[in-house]
Each structure stands twice: as C-alpha cells, then as structure tokens.
Amino acid sequence: MTASPRIALIHATSVAVDPIETAAKKIRPEADAVSILEEGLSVDRAKTEGLTPEMLKCSRDLVHYSETMAPSSAARHLEPRSNKRQSVQWCRL
Questions:
Q1: What share of the chain is helix, strand, coil (3-state, %, to 5)?
Q2: Is residue 90 in a domain?
Q3: FRET partner for 40 with CA separation of 20 to 30 A, picked from 12, 26, 56, 81?
Q4: By three-state DSSP, how is residue 53 classified?
Q5: Domain containing residue 51
Q6: What is the pLDDT of residues 41-86, one digit of tens each?
Q7: CB-based contact 73:93 (threshold 8 Å)
Q8: pTM confidence score
C-alpha cells in the first residue's frame, strides 16, 4: 500500500487552521494535512514593528521540525494584524 503524500501546515494563529486546511485539501485532495500551531509568533509580532530575527529563527525551526514528519509539501503563513502589514509567506506545494 502506498502512503498518502503529506503536507505540513504551520500556523501562527488558531483562526488560520480551518481555512488553510480546507484550501490544502482543495489543492491536494489526496494528501494528508498535518497542522503545527505556534501562537507565540502572533503574540510576539503584535509587540514589534516588524519581524525580528528571533521570529524568523522560530519560523525556520518550525519548518525544520515539519520536515521531520516527511511531508511531500510544506506551507507556512505569518501575516500580522497591523497598519504596517508585513507578510511572510512560504509555500512549496
């Protein structure tokens, strides 16, 4: 039996989980989506003017962690709520 492909989804806020899982299922219906939630990124981002080196390191660490789950794809989205919107998106689907 062939294993289903796996997609790792990394979220910085819980409200993103359902819509992103739904989108992943539409894009890759044959894949198993695995979500990783790290709300500390959103909390930390709300306290700063922009993304800090520590936030970026945390994001990279989460991507590296997701790779241990042997995903065929990974996606991360960090979009802070502020007037100075700075968005980081990484996707390999």
A1: 40, 25, 35
A2: no
A3: 26
A4: helix
A5: 6-79
A6: 999 999 998 889 999 999 889 988 888 876 565 554 444 444 334 3
A7: yes
A8: 0.70
